[in-house]
Amino acid sequence: MNLGNKIRKIRKRKNLTLQDLAEKSDLSIGMISQIENDKIGLSVTSLWKIAKALEVSIGDFFDEKTNNNNLIVRKNERKKIQLANSTASYELLTPDLSWNIEFLRITINPGESSDTRKLSHQGEETGFIIQGKLLIKWGDKEFILNEGDSIRLDSTIPHRYINIGDVKSISIWAMTPPSF
Asked: Which of 51, 85, 117, 140 is the most buried (most CB within 10 A)?
């Protein structure tokens, strides 16, 4: 997936200059230019900032592949995002972001995290650990979740997920309103 090109297209469609997007996203013009030209990778935090500045969801950067009247997502048709600075993999389990909830499957390799910094966004989320172990950093609190455990969070409080286990962590997250 060519994220840089999609970001550029949305920016131009909204008649924003590189400087406009840089100011709105609190990123440098040089960084925006490098991202749009796929010279550097994106962190989840930077992607959130750009999406917010462009007034779109992160899902708008995904390839559109939905079928069955936007009710079903087949395993091989999931919208996926893999960020360059992270081994975390995100898969959208809902057909699109047009309803009031979204589901994500997040896979994180041992010793890796969802992002290098905590991030926050509107809404709330609930996660369920299918495999492995996750350390959830939420505000000034930390929670260790094992396979079969679940958690509910206020997404406006900065948070991140870290795989502290020896195997890939696989978890399912529900977010409302859709924000990815």
From this structure: 51
Q: What is the pTM of this model?
A: 0.72
CA distance 5 to 8: 5
In the sheet that holds 159-163, the strands lie side by side as 141-146, 133-138, 159-163
Looking at the fold, whether 92 and 49 belong to one and the same domain comes out as no
Q: pLDDT > 90: what percent of the chain?
A: 55
Helix (H, G, I), strand (E, B) or coil at 141: strand
Please, which pLDDT band fits residue 66 given cuts at 50, 70 and 90? very low
Tokens 């750009």 identify what position?
50
Both 89 and 7 in one domain: the answer is no
Half-sphere exposure of 125 (CA within 13 A, CB side): 27
